Amino acid sequence: MRFRQIIFDVDDTLIDFAATEHYALRSLFNAHHWKLTTALQQRYNSYNQGLWRQLEQGKITYDQLSEMVFRNFLKDNLQINVDGLVIMQEYRSYFSESHQLLPGVIDTLRFAQKKGYQLAVLSNGESFMQEHRLALAGIKNYFSLIVTSQAAGFAKPDKRIFDYFFNLSSIGPAETIFFGDGLQSDILGAENYGFNSIWYNHRHRKNNMDLHPLHEVKNYPQFVKLLKNDL
């Protein structure tokens, strides 16, 4: 095989991020008796994604993001003043309980493992939360190594998170390929570090960053087909 190790992203690669976010946000708003409309949820999605882009670009830290999200969003949209970190902690408690897998994940992990690939995770997120969700989804044991930005101290696409990962991995970047949905985080991160990637473009986005993943797939059966042909 050309590659011996596959690194997977978590949110919107293994676990359905939209379903997770919807569940966590609805649970939070219900607990506080705040009204959550479709328009408000869309504004939250846009605002939250913008903050994550800033994190990936190194403009803010993970702690700053955690404090800002609900403090600013609730004040600007509902005129409610809250302790941002307290509300974020509550939100993440709901988030950590949602673990809906995307179609085809388990069959693909099983097939890749049977083929002899070493499987790993590299995620921008908290260690306990991501490992807990993978365990609830029944797939944690497929991975020999699970690394998060919290543990590394840096977020994808920062090269230092990849340094951290490969210092722990028994397989180097030349024999590793990254499988993820995020252009800005996963594909850019792998490309800047100098190893190959597969863009899991199940949301049908445009590659407007002039990035060059080795392959692009729209679903897991397409990925399995690549695995059958040893990528």
UniProtKB/TrEMBL annotation:
Domain of life: Bacteria
Annotated SUPFAM superfamilies: HAD-like
Recorded GO MF terms: 5'-nucleotidase activity
Pfam assignment, any one: Hydrolase
Protein name: Noncanonical pyrimidine nucleotidase, YjjG family
Higher taxonomy: Bacteria, Bacillati, Bacillota, Bacilli, Lactobacillales
